[in-house]
Amino acid sequence: HQPVCECNPCYGGSDCSEFQSDCVANAGSGDPLFLEPFWMKHAASSAVLVSGWHRMSYIYSDGSYISELLVDHIKKLHDIVGNAKADGKYIIFGAGSTQLLNAAVYALSPNSSSEPAKVVATSPYYSVYRTATELFNSRDYKYEGDTSLWKNNSDDSSTFIEFVTSPNNPDGKLTTAVLQGSNVKTIYDRAYYWPHFIAIPTAADEDLMVFTISKLTGHAGSRFGWAIIKDADVYERMSRYLTLNTQGVSRDAQLRALKLLNVVLEGEGRELFEFGYTTMRDRWIRLKNVLSKSKRFSLQKLSPQYCSFFQRTKDPSPAYGWLKCEREEDKDCYAVLSAAEIDGRPGSTFSADDRYVRLSLIRSQDDFEILINKLKKLVAE
Ligand code: PMP
């Protein structure tokens, strides 16, 4: 079937070919539409058809909420990519990684202790760690700011829950935990730990790692993620959260994830990751080239690294540009870009300085081309 295309908001006319000159480049949200061309190429093999009578039950035939076949696919994928050790560990599913991050905070918090766990992250960090923790407003955990505030508090015996995003959103750095000690529990958010975005140095083996298909296959709308857990108690508590919160993940979403991973696993994942990596690398090179013509802006520094999956050294291919406005007067970098009709995410969203703006590079090709054109104009001025 020919795909039915909706016009990008920057284009109009009956065939979406008329450029709307007053439009704003959308480099805001991390909607991973850069993978759409891959799935158009695999339209038939990735399609799902579900009859009305099919899979109506709350549970699978083994009585669980989790498709064991999908667990096997996920383990096989990690094995092939070499980005995480999953064998012998527990796997649990969530509605995107978002639900699992909340489940993890619940599971790692001491229950009914007199002091709530301190939830922390290192700036610049993905803002949902803070906003979701604050929304749930629990007696058992509380958001307590940046890890830098707690680094030298070795005599603080309360439980710490540190979020580590690796590679980091927004700056693409391969980060590790800042806090150490028996009272520190770490949630490794591995949403971007795929060969699209980073050279894989080694298989991650942390106690609690969270993954999502959103940034792996690009199917953010299916809301499917998984956590790999070492400890049986933590697994039980996360399962309890999932059961009470939503009774597990939509069986339809699991079926779709299974179908998609089947396609990914064909040819040992090479086609998807080659496509993802070359797309992201080319975008990064073009972004860097445009901005290199100006001293007004700079980007995060990333260097080529050896990738164990591709078995070669790879150039950087981050999901986001972490742009800095260098001029003294450009304290509000978001406003500088807005005036040039570019919509990014202000640094303060990531608890960082507003001299920074995150530019999303994982959106559709149209969005990226419009971003590059607007940046070219801005730099030429
Ligand atoms: N973690 C990070 C670091 C993210 O950037 C995102 C999405 N932007 C998520 C988690 C949430 O992803 P999802 O719920 O779609 O799996």
- Sheet with the most strands, sense and barrel status: 7 strands, mixed
Determine the CATH topology of the largest domain: Aspartate Aminotransferase, domain 2
How many structural domains?
Answer: 2
In CATH terms, the superfamily of the largest domain is Type I PLP-dependent aspartate aminotransferase-like (Major domain)
Low-confidence spans: pLDDT under 50, at least 5 residues? Answer: none
Mean pLDDT: 95
Compose a concise summary of this entry.
By secondary structure, this protein is α/β, with parallel strands linked by helices.
Describe it for me?
It is a single chain. With 381 residues, the chain is an alpha/beta fold. It folds into 2 domains: 11-41 and 269-380, Aspartate Aminotransferase, domain 1 (Alpha-Beta Complex), CATH 3.90.1150.10; 68-267, Aspartate Aminotransferase, domain 2 (3-Layer(aba) Sandwich), CATH 3.40.640. It is 31% helix and 18% strand. It is built from 9 helices and 17 strands. The chain has helices at 36-41, 68-81, 96-108, 128-136, 232-246, 251-265, 270-292, 333-339, 365-380; strands at 11-12, 18-19, 25-26, 90-94, 117-121, 141-146, 160-165, 184-189, 208-212, 225-229, 297-298, 305-307, 312-314, 320-325, 342-343, 345-346, 356-360. Strands 4-10-9-8-7-5-6 form a 7-stranded mixed sheet, with helices on one face. Strand 1 (11-12) and strand 2 (18-19) form a beta hairpin. Helix 2 packs parallel to helix 6. It starts with 10 loop residues before the first strand and ends with a helix. The relative contact order is 0.17. The structure holds 4'-deoxy-4'-aminopyridoxal-5'-phosphate. Residues 30, 96-98, 126, 165, 169, 189, 191, 212, 214, 220, 225 line the site of 4'-deoxy-4'-aminopyridoxal-5'-phosphate.
